[in-house]
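Revision sheet: structure tokens.
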Amino acid sequence: MLALYAAYGARVARTRRGVPCGCAGERTPMTGWVAGRAAAFAALALAGALWGLPGDPTRYEIVTIVAAGLGFAVILWTLPLAMTEERSPAV
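Predicted:
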């Protein structure tokens, strides 16, 4: 699914400028960055699927996985807005 979104994002970014991607509920335009991010996630998902599940994760590993997942979720939620926010020059 991520690979299809990456292909769709790349096509839209090339052919239709200014179309919103719907990232984080904002009107962030579809760019090559959105398509590249989806392609990177597709590659990571494929690598995880090929690697397989761990045998029996420890509590430390579970806490690390949950913390990393929450951290990445926050970053991905705020990244599109941070990339389009206009900044005034430092005075």
